Amino acid sequence: MNKKKALWGLFLVLLFLFTLNSITPLQKHLISIANSIKSDYLFLKKSVYDKITLHLHQKSQIEELRREIEKLRPAASLSVAFASKLNGCLKELNLTKYDPRLIPARVLSYERLENPKRLWIAYKTDEHNYSHGLLYRGFSAGIVREKLGQPLAILQTDRSALFSVMIGKEKIPAVIFGNGENMIIKYIPLYKHPKEGDEVYTSGKDGLFFEGIKVGKITKIMTKKIYKSAIVTPYVTIENPHFFYVVDVN
Questions:
Q1: 51 vs 214, residue with greater confidence
Q2: How many Cβ atoms from other residues are within 10 Å of residue 203's Cβ?
Q3: Is 207 exposed, middle or buried (0-12, 13-18, 19+ CB in 10 A)?
Q4: How far apart are CA 198 and CA 96, in angstroms?
Q5: Contact between 139 and 214 (Cβ < 8 Å)
Q6: Euclidean distance between the first and the last CA atom of the chain, given in angstroms as a whole number
Q7: Which residues contact 142 (CB under 8 A, 6 or more apart)?
């Protein structure tokens, strides 16, 4: 009798476990609907979160730009006043008017996909064999040259980019080159004493830029037998640019 009860109990347990592991078509359908609803809910939740995050980010950027504009407004007014005064003096001396121009240029494509530091840009000019400086967000960005009759932007870290600069408060004259990653200044005389942290500016002596555009900071000084070199980290990192400004100093 006890053996029969034990067998009957075992049968009930097995039946219960089988019931748990067996899923009817109705249960499958309900589970499918539940999973679908859950998936849609999570997708909707993520979409709403992404839109709110994007809105807040854009709002933050707009506020930041407004603050920057307010900071720059007095400087812009002073620059206009200074340019007017300067050109008045030049006119009295019968000298050429100083009127550098910044011309917006839209990025079209890479010259070659394997080198993102050389880009074709849309820049209209009647000049031939020209070379100009290039700005991005108010800092030096490189140079633009004519190639195959089209304007080619060469970013300042490219090995073929070079232009004249000044170093630090001493305004040490130098020429800066791209080295593939950062920039390097070579052939600094040994009797000059540039330091790490010194700011580097355009000198305006090469006809590419006007004087005083910020380039970057010196991060390393190297002393050779007959000259010094300096590694410069640019102020601006250029990734996926859409527009540049071409500097026309003539």
A1: 214
A2: 23
A3: middle
A4: 33
A5: yes
A6: 113
A7: 117, 133, 134, 153, 154, 155, 156, 157, 158, 161, 178
What is the residue type of 217?
A: K
Q: Name the more confident of 115 and 43.
A: 115
CA atoms within 13 A on the CB side of 73: 7
d(CA 209, CA 201): 10
User: Has this prediction a pTM greater than 0.90?
Assistant: no
Q: How many CB atoms lie within 10 A of CB 72?
A: 12
pLDDT of residue 215 exceeding 80: yes
The tens digit of pLDDT for each residue in 65-79 reads: 677 666 666 555 556
- pLDDT (tens digit, 9 = 90+) per residue, 159-203? 999 999 999 999 999 999 999 989 999 899 999 999 999 999 999
8 A C-beta contact, residue 165 and residue 156: no
